[in-house]
């Protein structure tokens, strides 16, 4: 029954797709094959070539590839890209000449097939069409006198870029329409899934029913309920939401033929049956609607507290009325001990109200400060580059992540899943909704610049050992007492500082030895209006 | 007799005190959940009612409070960068831009600080292209050395252009380093870093 339905849906879907593609082609006059071929070629270029070559941006480690197809024949290029070493060793004069010219740096061999290399060359060629019209600037013609000419060339490129952007926008609107149709298709599919199928999927996912092929249950890596510790693998909910938004990936086919290296290693050549993959997809779709299961923990500490209250009450009643225990001293003793414990608990909990110390929420991306700061030795200021000049230290925008993650796409612990989230938000221009950990009330003014730039306070003084946190946690209480105490202890740089020259009394006291150092509270850090105004 | 009684009393006292200390640690806090902030006395002003800088915003068109500058306007004190990311732009920047920063010790020290924060991860503390990210094998492609003659003979403007817009796989640092500091970094690379080797 399932097969019939999916086949029918597929047919409808294919017809819809065909109609849209037809519309696209007729309106834009595209050749579909070249568009798709160029896409993969562009990916190949980024992967294999872009480290050393550019197209039209000048020589780097290797030569600029703009117009390379005019200098050499295509067959020669295919041979050279496939294995430059063998061509050089065979004594080909052209190959040896380029090898000598670029400081005898070997170009690594590639595993690309001939057709893929031809697509790559076509991709490089496509750049030449756009730029060949313009007069190219050579090193000889570069002079201060012809700056005007160079400027006109730049003007032309900027205009071309604008045109290209408009073109991309039109393409984007069509893509959006396609997405809507695809989502509609998927919704109609999920509406027909029965509860029985979801239940079977849950049992398969949690390992209650084993898989036919020798495959471990999904739940060994992907948790189905909320956990307190950190799981580097995505939870079932993460997977469901990540793939429902992507239109190019179908979960069912991905479960059968996994793309990521980690999944391949786990499956170890085994394959899930089609019906199993379908049941798991059904389960994932249901979990996307309901979310992860949340098990309520037994409130042990609260129960202990209530027990203590009861003991205290009974001892009091026994002391006054029932008098079961003959020795009064025992009852008095119990009363005093429980009283101390209860008041202690009440005091500590009441004092902690409003302070979210040890708050460590789950973030939308499993970003670990330990990996970035301790292992990779990236300075705090690289990403949070506000505190020297601004009130806020700043949450890094996605383009800061992409400086490194443009190239680093797999993490040691998380694989590709978490980094893909950044890439996706970067490409779609959606900001990541990080959850704020350190929150100061609105009636307090705090400036990072004053503390970091002027006070020369290290980040870890307030934020703790952030380099040992996989989940970012609030270490300090951020209470007013905490602020005021630190102001009383921290020394102000008073000598050779023109800013505080007005405090004549303090200068005199320092000289006469009345005070050893000037602390922040003496120059007004603890005045009300410094923070509350 | 009296002595043993005294001893027993003391022992009991000690036991009781230590018991109180141990027991008082059990119910010290409510059952905490790391995902919750806990309770508030008066939450009115703790969580801002106004939309804060990084908060989502249902009123504004793209759902964000932090909006980009209106089209055709620039922030105060900001000089927009005019050269495009093309070889012509690079050469023109090299010809036209002049380092406005005075080469004194203070500026070079600031340049060194900024270099160690932003550049040393890839290009290395000595500028040899052996930064820890590449040396550890985390970053796959080899960063170029900054202290070769070829590199140091480039004009300051070209350095500025590449720091601002990025090069082939190097990302743009336009938003990360203030332009004044970019010149100081260039100053440090040319005056101090090159002399070390």
Task: Describe the structure in your own words.
The complex is a heterodimer of chains A (533) and B (197). Chain A has helices at residues 2-28, 32-49, 68-71, 74-82, 84-89, 93-101, 114-131, 147-190, 195-205, 236-245, 251-256, 261-267, 274-290, 300-322, 328-351, 369-375, 380-383, 398-405, 417-428, 448-454, 459-463, 480-489, 504-512, 528-531. By secondary structure, chain A is mainly alpha-helical. Among the domains of chain A are: 2-134 and 147-186, Cytochrome Bc1 Complex, Chain D, domain 2, CATH 1.10.760.10; 195-290, Cytochrome c-like domain (Cytochrome Bc1 Complex, Chain D, domain 2); 300-351; 484-533, no CATH class. Chain A is flat and about 105 Å long. The longest helix of chain A has 44 residues, at 147-190. Chain B has a domain at 87-196: Cytochrome c-like domain (Cytochrome Bc1 Complex, Chain D, domain 2, Orthogonal Bundle), CATH 1.10.760.10. Chain B contains eight helices and no strands. Chain B has helices at 2-24, 87-96, 105-118, 120-123, 132-135, 149-152, 156-165, 179-193. The mean pLDDT of chain B is 84. The chains are: A mainly alpha (533), B mainly alpha (197). Chains A and B meet through helix 8, helix 14, helix 15 and helix 18 of A and helix 1, helix 2 and helix 3 of B.
Individual helix count of chain B: 8
C-alpha Rg of chain A (nearest Å): 34 Å
The N- to C-terminal Cα distance of chain B equals: 87 Å
Biggest sheet layout of chain B: none
Per the principal axes of the C-alpha atoms, what is the gross shape of chain B? elongated
CATH level-two architecture of the domain at 87-196 in chain B: Orthogonal Bundle
User: What is the class of the domain at 87-196 in chain B in the CATH system?
Assistant: Mainly Alpha
Rg over alpha carbons of chain B: 30 Å
Order of helices and strands of chain B: HHHHHHHH
Amino-to-carboxy terminus distance of chain A: 70 Å
List keywords for this structure.
heterodimer; A: 533 residues; mainly alpha; Cytochrome Bc1 Complex, Chain D, domain 2; 24 helices; 56% helix; 0% strand; disordered N terminus; B: 197 residues; elongated
